[in-house]
Design goal:
Structural class: alpha+beta
Helix content: 25-40%
Number of strands: 5
Oligomer: single chain
Radius of gyration: 13 Å
Length: 105
């Protein structure tokens, strides 16, 4: 898997951002991330994982509402050819570990 970027958002605030490779400039993808943060306000059940393909990259996201405060949104940006099952395994593990560190289940 070629992981390009990891973002963790709580509410409307980015609490973790790590870049591992070239991706879109922030100005180009900020509206997409912003729309996902609005999605957080409306979730009833957590999203285990969902995928969106852009022109050059695959965006996977997952949510966790078990942490104190606002739900967390985990976003992975990977290459288009990366297998969904490997991305799912990694984002699920990352979601679980970070949520535990922040006091969630």
């Amino acid at each position: 898997m070629m992981l390009r970027n990891i973002l963790v958002i709580q509410g409307k605030e980015i609490i973790y951002n790590r870049k591992y490779g070239e991706t879109y400039p922030w100005e180009a993808i900020a509206p997409l991330y912003l729309s996902l943060t609005y999605f957080l306000d409306e979730i009833v059940d957590d999203v285990e994982i969902d995928f969106m393909n852009t022109v050059h990259y695959k965006i996977a996201y997952s949510t966790n509402s078990s942490v104190p405060g606002r739900p967390l949104l985990f976003i992975f940006v990977t290459d288009l050819g990366d297998p969904n099952d490997i991305i799912k395994e990694q984002i699920t593990l990352f979601n679980s570990e970070v949520s535990k560190m922040l006091g969630g289940v």
